[in-house]
Amino acid sequence: MDWKKEFEELSEIWKQNKLMIDQLNLKIEDLKDYTLTADENIIKYKQLQKENNVLNHLLKQYESTLDIIMKKFRLQTILIQKEKQSFKKDFILKLEKEQFENEELRQENKELKEKLLNFVSITRELLKEDDETESLVVKLQTENETLRKILSE
Q: What are the C-alpha distances in Å from 111 to residues 85, 97, 120, 125?
């Protein structure tokens, strides 16, 4: 974010330079109103040329600094866009992987439920058969005892 500060500072310098140029232009207009000697005109002209050269130099510095800042800004923007795209790709890949894993787990859960239901059904049948067998054994034991009593009499 240093480039923002630099940009603001350069903008302020540029405004000051613009103000100085406007002031110099006013001075030039004021000087036109006076009739000066040739030597005085030459001296004033050289002073104005020096000031103009200084201002042109400052303006070129400002422009080159602004170009550097804009290049940095564009580079940062490109890097941020690339990061966003990379993040988006990673996110999509992770999401697809999660969806695939969720689907596998759903399928496995379904199969396990079916196996559990099958197991419960078989267990119930076995319990039913066991009850019937037990009942039959009790009947046979009772019958056997009765027959023994009859035979023993």
A: 39, 21, 14, 21
Total-model pTM: 0.43
* pLDDT tens digits for range 113-141: 999 989 888 888 877 777 777 777 788 78
CA dist 20 and 26 (Å) reads: 10
Domain boundaries, the chain: 2-123
Rounded to whole angstroms, the Cα distance separating 55 from 44 reads: 16
Confidence of residue 38 (pLDDT cuts 50, 70, 90): low
Alpha helix ranges (H) inside 1-153: 2-33, 38-152
Distance of CA 115 to the CA centre of its chain: 44
